[in-house]
Amino acid sequence: MTTTIVRAACPHDCPDTCALLVTVKDGVATEVRGDPEHPPTSGVLCTKVSRYTERTYHKDRLLHPLRRTGKKGEGKFERISWEEAIAEIVQRLSSIALRDPQAILPYSYAGTMGMVQGESMAGRFFNRLGASQLERTICSSAGSAGYRYTVGARIGTDLEQVNGAKLILIWGGNPIASNLHFWTRVQAAKRNGARLIAIDPYRSLTAEKCHQHIALLPGTDAALALGMMHVLVAEDLLDHDYIARHTLGFEQLKQRVAEWTPQRTAEVCGISAAEVLELAREYGRTALAGEGAMIRANYGLQRVRGGGMASRNVACLPALVGAWRHASGGIQMSTSDTFPKDNAALGRPDLAVRHGAPARIINMSTIGDDLLKPASAAFGPKVEAVIVYNANPVAVAPESAKVVEGFAREDLFTVVLEHFQTDTADYADIVLPATTQLEHVDVHATYGHIYMMANNAAIAPLGESKPNTEIFRLLAAAMGFDEDCFKDSDDDIAAVAFRRDHPRSAGYDWDALKEKGWQRLNMPAAPFADGGFATPSGKCEFYSAQMKAAGLDPLPDYIAPYESVASNPQLGAKYPLAMISPPARNFLNSSFVNVQSLRDTEGEPHLDMHPLDAAARGIGAEDMVRIFNDRGSMQARVRVTDKARPGLVVGLSIWWKKFAADGKNANEVTSQRLTDMGNAPTFYDVLVQVEKLATDEPADASRAAAAAAAAA
Ligand SMILES: Nc1nc2c(c(=O)[nH]1)N[C@H]1C(S)=C(S)[C@@H](COP(=O)(O)OP(=O)(O)OC[C@H]3O[C@@H](n4cnc5c(=O)[nH]c(N)nc54)[C@H](O)[C@@H]3O)O[C@H]1N2
Ligand SMILES: Nc1nc2c(c(=O)[nH]1)N[C@H]1C(S)=C(S)[C@@H](COP(=O)(O)OP(=O)(O)OC[C@H]3O[C@@H](n4cnc5c(=O)[nH]c(N)nc54)[C@H](O)[C@@H]3O)O[C@H]1N2
Ligand code: SF4
Ligand SMILES: [Mo]
């Protein structure tokens, strides 16, 4: 028996991008562990990925290509060969491309965050084809836009410095579930005397363990930051030297925040004026005392109408109090832009230029509407084909009824590259089996730490599955694309992923990275201790000329949600409860929902509801309820709990629809309206009503039972 240990990287859409050690015995992966030597990972994995072999060797893994035999959505398929699959896809795509290649749309996100299995060969293929471009907005583009206007690039506090903080604001994030290795460091900081404050409408697992929890109304974070700035200015809790040397627009900011008294802020946020005052004082005093005052701003505050502005306002705070001076201060929203990726070499956007005008752009967050649009001068051609990889839009995209209607179109040709028969794969014409991270090569940047990460293939592909790259290589060859880049191996691609000529990744060497598994970027401990922001002015921009040019308010502002009782009383009268659907701990977006042990831990779709709201509707503990608005409805089992503040309901997500009693999930009620900047979705900007189901029987129990039996 031969046993080897292979160095790998977790592929999932999680800021931690852990370094993995995979034990392989006679060609079979038997264990996945965290690398004890990699500082961010420190030998620890989350529950999901420590069970990775369960997912890889799952009996439902797709192992050969399939062609649909039933109706769209029914999930009936027959086995076909790779030759048949490629020939059929190429025949369909070629005939559409003859008319207009822009009628073909790639749809992908971060099922794997690997740069090789992501937009490298796939990007080259769609660029060369002249297909529509996908605007990838579903997660972080609102916050990214707001942060970039202010700080210049998504660069922030180093994860490895968190231990030294004295005050940590966990703002719109639940790291125990979704950023575990940050939480480990928060615990270390707490042991050293740090105070932890969670800012979250919901008493999440994390908020429960902080010293203080500020339960503001969803979508009001921008106001809270304005109120804090008001107090910092009014009480002169300011780092005048840092402001003078490293910021732009302080005088205008001062005028703007004058109107945001603690009282007004408290009213908008649904909290007390004392909470606003104390938060600002504690933050300002800690930073001015030269101690680490850190903000971990996460995704919870971005998924509302004013999500970009909220992220911007929060990103202004560290510069006002000079918190950037301390390596354990500052703010981390994402570390993505720290990585000098070579996207031009990876996806070859230059190949698209041969078609003259740039291709039409479709926003992934409005896929529901866009699949239903007829051809028009403004829109361009009707979408006739969608190629889905690394994504599960039927479960994760907003306003699901529309998304389903779009994917159910008989005249739409859909190909899905997947590990499993997901809700989206049920609508495919052709399903292609993809390899998992244990079976292919990849290289990773991250969004929560600053190490480049390598993934070696640990085992051979299962069944007839192939890496995404290989699938696009086959398609390119069959389409007759003869550029050399379509012959690159996965190692060739990984070798050009980072720029060798950039100081942060100078001398990047794929062979060395593969052997070691990880390599820290060259970065100072405190990125903006002495200014040097990546904005046009080189300063932290309280006033942003770029925002003005984009038609936005150049100063921090508050943009109320589309849907809240205060901002839209008419809608609020009909649908008085705000609903959010943040990640469940044991799933990763919709990945892992089909892993039995993890689904057993989550149980079934739940809705957390405050006792007052439940009583007002005659809803008792554990009743089945229907959650609805004008867009749709879903069922869930209630948990009556004061974790949800009054007026708020919380449905942890993202369930596969086919595992729910009624075949639905939280995206039935979410909308396709976009954020103020970044064109991102507003998943947490939703009003609903909730009613008890007439009987305790789910509407379609047979469906859930059948799905459970099929998965068992
Ligand atoms: N286990 C697990 N880990 C994950 C994921 C997963 O699905 N499961 N998903 C991954 C992905 S794709 C992402 S983008 C990240 C997300 O990472 P996080 O942003 O940390 O996501 P959550 O853990 O849901 O934390 C969001 C918190 O924001 C709160 N919230 C909702 N609305 C508001 C609001 O208006 N204001 C404020 N202040 N808070 C609000 C929610 O109650 C929730 O507790 O996590 C990644 N990691
Ligand atoms: N209601 C609600 N909706 C949300 C959110 C929310 O909080 N609430 N969060 C949003 C966010 S932050 C995000 S990022 C999106 C996430 O949306 P997606 O990026 O679509 O994430 P997943 O649902 O995990 O689906 C990824 C799929 O990719 C597949 N996959 C993984 N690796 C590979 C591979 O190597 N090759 C191929 N071909 N397939 C692979 C997996 O099997 C999985 O089915 O969802 C969004 N939707
Ligand atoms: S999902 Fe996140 S915490 Fe879990 S192993 Fe992957 S990177 Fe680490
Ligand atoms: Mo995300």
Automatic annotation (TrEMBL):
Family: Belongs to the prokaryotic molybdopterin-containing oxidoreductase family.
Keyword annotations: Iron, Iron-sulfur, Metal-binding, Molybdenum, Oxidoreductase
Record-annotated 4Fe-4S Mo/W bis-MGD-type domain positions: 3-60
Matching CDD domains: MopB_3, MopB_CT_3
Cofactor(s) for this UniProt protein: Mo-bis(molybdopterin guanine dinucleotide)
Protein name per Swiss-Prot or TrEMBL: Molybdopterin oxidoreductase family protein
Taxonomic classification: Bacteria, Pseudomonadati, Pseudomonadota, Betaproteobacteria, Burkholderiales
InterPro entries documented for this protein: Asp_de-COase-like_dom_sf, MoPterin_dinucl-bd_dom, Mopterin_OxRdtase, Mopterin_OxRdtase_4Fe-4S_dom, Mopterin_OxRdtase_prok_CS, Prok_Mopterin_Oxidored, YoaE_C
Taxonomic source organism: Herbaspirillum robiniae
